[in-house]
Amino acid sequence: MAILRIPLPQGLPQFVQQVPLDGRTYTLRFHWNEREESWYMELADAEDVTIIAARKLVANWPLLHRRPDERKPPGELFVIDATGPGVDPGLQDLDQRVQLQYFDAEEMEQYR
Hints:
mainly beta
């Protein structure tokens, strides 16, 4: 049972990183949408095939929720607002006020 904090670079309007989640490697792509003043994420498998595209980062809300796909991780990704009120992340907020966390499959069983 584990919650994994995924470190994110600060101050970059777009970036890509690979992360191991429940024993499999995934690619996460992030980009800042200036017009909406919002972050978006894409999830891809190890072969760089998109599983989830253009998912808006909403604070304290499950990012993989309602996305039925056997290729996605069995756990859940959240952008957690460390200050509590659940304000969506701004351009400079990633890995500062908000953190990306992965609740593994075993951890999520407690909430089902």
